[in-house]
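User: My instructor asked us to take a sequence, write out its structure as tokens, and then describe one feature of it. I'm not sure where to start. Here is the sequence I was given:
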Amino acid sequence: MSPSFVSIAWAGRPVRIEHAFVGVDDARAPLVVFLHEGLGSLAMWKDFPQQLCAAAGLRGLVYSRPGYGRSTPRAPEERWLQDFMHRQAFEVLPALLQALHITQPYALFGHSDGGSISLLHAARFGAQVSRAIVLAPHILVEDLSVASIEQARSAYEQGGLKSGLAKYHDDPDSAFWGWNGIWLDPAFRAWDIQAEIGSIRCPLLAVQGLDDVYGTLEQIRGIQRRVPHTRLLELAQCGHSPHRDQPAALIEAAKAFFSTPGSHGDTP
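Assistant: Let's start with the prediction itself. The structure tokens for your sequence are:
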């Protein structure tokens, strides 16, 4: 993907957002917005968005959130708070869509933190969101998640994680410490969005790998209890990143999901 840049006003300053359009080269085509994981970026998706969009006949918008990829880094003194995913869902994504002059209905495809942001956005902006797919989303904080994020901190400080992330982020410290710091803040253990997602009305597909070390099946099953029309996809031999571990199965499921009635803002 060859990125472009657009500026939005956020957190009291101009913020540059790295983004790219993939798939069908037609502004009238059904649009899906990809939201990356807590350490992800536009580049870390690699060619998966293009593959999915080509298979399903979609136009995709892929972007790096502030603090990630080649977007404006997090300021050294900036500390993310418990509402950091809410702010991405309610402030950053709408500002980006406005800056890109996107007024049509759009679908969401979010991974991990990006999945949680997608759920929050779909709950508030239901008139614009045609449907959503969430991979390994978080709706509450589990002990398993915290333990794995603690291990990630050790890998960043003592192992090769920092050099690995430097391939995908202009400022890997911005990306890592923004995410790691808030997730390991004791106050964040109370973070829970279950009540908020109950207002989601669009078609929803929630995907979880059975070998995910960052979350259990309770995450997606909890979504289905709050949003009963949610479809679940539980993948064997799959960890935290279904688009890397089981891309073919995921693309087939997504293609079928996008082709059912109700897709892209159509009437079910």
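For the description part of your assignment, you could build on this observation: The radius of gyration is 17 Å. Try explaining in your own words what that tells you about the chain.
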